[in-house]
Design a protein that fits this description.
Length: 454
């Protein structure tokens, strides 16, 4: 795959990069190992100082990082600015909390002293996607570096400048050169890197295929992995819900990042009593969205990241319509330069169509009608994915059932699904395993050592 910055709003190739050769991969692995030998002994206070310095750089130059993200993958500039600032938040969060999360935990046993100690593993490989090119990396890197691990980043091939900029941020913040390195390599080199003895574990955010491939390679080498894969998140609206709030939130939940988010609301499951009202409100909101240059602060929806993503999304829509689904809004690529697909709503979706069975990674909302909560939960759980779920109700009994019965890594009641450094994030089923963020995230890549002293 070509490693290049290609402006998705125009199709222009801005800059290309040569993949590094095996000799340079070897040099970076050796540097990571050498750095770890001293880095893991550095006190929390020093690592926290560096991580807070990284947060300062992220906040102070948020507009610059945002322009780079928008140039490479097309997200609206305001969302890109927010992404840079959220990365600063996760840095500050772990700078403050890591000493508490990784402190020895005393356990009363028949020994004179027994406790659990958390120790770093070594070099961790992160295989990251293009859709949140800064956030996905920093939510791995901040806890990994505070735990005393060192990181190696294999970023998506269409965001190479973001990948290099992130490594520069950590260096400028004061981290040793080998603490966090970017590898400009194609996906064909991932298995080779994972298999190397100096890599102790790996994490991947991306497709099911990529996750399965990484996990298989790591499994052969008996190495820990954390996977955050696809999602087909339900957005359930029941009779008792505040429908107007649900509609307003639904637009954000589906259109965030031009619809290219694993935790975007994708399947809108509506109780029959409020379905017409919700549908009409959503149509009006979608039709009012401004499509255009993602560098323009007034743009609501920008281009999809690549022509292939555009083609795949349109194929899914056309196949669904041909098999009986109705396009209420949108439904075809825009006739203009760039990878633009309009906000689209599909309804009357038959079983066996892509809209019923697959993840749609773009600004397409899928509407389903149900008789009540039993049918809503059954439909929500009918997908092979289990990342997030949003549900809207004012009834306490319904709320408790939704929390208990929805098969997902996170359930948000009366709000959109989002990641938060203070809460664990991850999925079940084919959405992956393991957790990022919070205390659970920082403990994924440590040796949880039992100590017993008589």
């Amino acid at each position: 795959m070509t490693i290049a910055t290609i402006n998705p709003a125009t199709g222009e190739t801005v800059k290309t990069f040569e993949a590094i050769a095996d000799a340079e991969i070897e040099a970076k692995l050796a540097k990571a190992q050498q750095t770890f030998e001293s880095y893991h002994r550095i006190p929390f206070a020093q690592k926290a100082q560096w991580l807070n310095a990284a947060a300062d750089l992220l906040e102070g130059q948020a507009a610059d990082w945002a322009k780079l993200m928008t140039l490479e993958m097309g997200k609206p500039i305001q969302g890109a600015i927010s992404e840079a600032k959220k990365c600063a938040w996760v840095c500050r969060y772990y700078a403050e909390q890591a000493p508490h999360f990784l402190a020895d935990v005393a356990v009363e046993t028949d020994a004179s002293r027994s406790f659990v100690r958390y120790q770093p593993l070594g070099a961790i490989l992160a295989v990251m996607p293009w859709n949140f090119p800064f956030w996905q990396v920093f939510r791995f890197a901040a806890p990994a570096l505070m735990a005393g691990n060192v990181g190696l980043l294999k970023h998506a091939s269409n965001v190479p400048q973001c990948a290099l900029a992130i490594a520069d941020i950590f260096r400028e913040a004061g981290f040793p050169d080998g603490a966090f390195q970017t590898l400009l390599v194609g996906s064909d080199k991932v298995a080779q890197i994972v298999a190397d003895d100096r890599i102790k574990a790996a994490t991947l955010t991306g497709s099911e295929f990529a996750g399965a491939s990484l996990a298989a390679t790591a499994g052969k080498a008996i190495k820990k992995t954390v996977l955050e894969l696809g999602g087909s998140d339900p957005f359930i609206v029941l009779d008792s819900a505040d429908v107007e709030s649900a509609i307003a939130t639904a637009v954000t939940a589906r259109m965030l990042n031009n619809g290219q988010s694993c935790i975007a609301a994708k399947r809108f499951i509506l109780a029959e009593a409020i379905a017409d009202r919700f549908e009409q409100g959503l149509i009006e909101k979608f039709q009012s969205l401004k499509i255009g240059d993602p560098m323009d602060a007034t743009t609501d929806v920008g281009p999809l990241a690549t022509p292939d993503i555009l083609a795949e999304l349109d194929h899914q829509v056309q196949q669904s319509v041909q098999k009986g689904a109705r396009a209420l809004v949108g439904g075809a690529p825009l006739d203009r330069p760039g990878n633009f697909y309009p906000p689209t709503i599909l309804s009357d979706i038959p079983i066996g169509t892509p809209a019923y069975e697959e993840e749609f990674f773009g600004p397409v909302a899928l509407l389903f009608r149900v008789a009540g909560i039993d049918e809503a939960i059954k439909l929500a759980n009918s997908t092979p994915f289990g990342l997030g779920a949003s549900a809207w109700t004012a009834d306490d009994a319904e709320r408790d059932r939704l929390i208990e019965e929805l098969q997902a890594g996170c359930v948000f009641i009366n709000g959109l699904v989002k990641s938060d450094p203070r809460l664990p994030f991850g999925g079940i089923k084919r959405s992956g395993y393991g957790r990022e963020l919070s205390v659970e995230g920082i403990r994924e890549f440590v040796n949880i050592k039992t100590v017993w002293v008589k």
